[in-house]
Amino acid sequence: MRKAVVLFDLDETLIHERASTAASFAAVAAAHGLDGSTLQAAVRAAAVPLWGAGPAAAYCGAIGISWWEGMSGPFGPSPVAELAALHAWIPRFRAEAWAAALDRLRVRADPADLAAAFAADRLRRHVPYPDAVATLERLRAAGHRLGLVTNGAPDYQNLKLDGSGLRPHFEAVVVSGEAGVGKPDPRIFALALERLRCEPGAAAMVGDNPARDVAGARAAGIMAVLVERGEPGGGADAVVRELAEIPGLVA
Ligand SMILES: [Mg+2]
Predict the structure, then answer these.
(1) How many Å lie between the centroid of ligand 1 and the Cα of residue 33?
(2) pLDDT by residue (tens digit) across 106-157?
(3) Distance in Å, CA 8 to ligand 1 centroid
(4) In the chain, what are the domains?
(5) Is the pTM here over 0.90, yes or no?
(6) CA 106 to centroid of ligand 1, rounded, Å
(7) CB of 24 closer than 8 Å to CB of 121
(8) 2 C-alpha to center of ligand 1: Å?
């Protein structure tokens, strides 16, 4: 059945997340004579336990905000209590994580400098997958209406959407941090379809995460398409390797 509406995930479906994060660690590492993956591993080892013990850990798990986003994202003042708590705590999180990582690597540098350099570099990298723009254009040209359903902090997801230049393709954008509920909760998909005035049976969801995108879409009665980015695709209605395969699936 033709799908009038196609919903997309953002991170690692339409834009690079892992590669951009690694590239930013590499850029900061190079400035200090270090190897990017060594630096990333050291920061990760320090950041993960801090993130897990942070003031909004459960919220970040449910809404989908990761430690590496915590290392770079804009977390502005917010009326949402958990986002406000993140806003207040993030500077300390970054300072402690970078200080511990530099200690571990026996690097003598100001952690604040590296923290700032990493965040600035990462906030400049919003790189779409090579076939993302052409695929979105083809879908729209064929009369499909597009929506974005993304987990994360509103400030950061909106920055990625604008920075990548992808926003104009979408009639509806739903960010978990705004919706108050994240994928795989079927309510976030229902909210997107409500904004697009579309029934679940006439929609497809495209994403890279089997648990959040695929299981969530199916629970909402929506056809689920997994884009394989390294995670096996159990439970999806269709599995693709390239975004360019999507128009043929929903035609
Ligand atoms: Mg994703």
Answers:
(1) 32
(2) 999 999 999 999 999 999 999 999 999 999 999 999 999 999 999 999 999 9
(3) 9
(4) 5-16+127-250 (3.40.50.1000), 18-122 (no CATH)
(5) yes
(6) 34
(7) yes
(8) 24
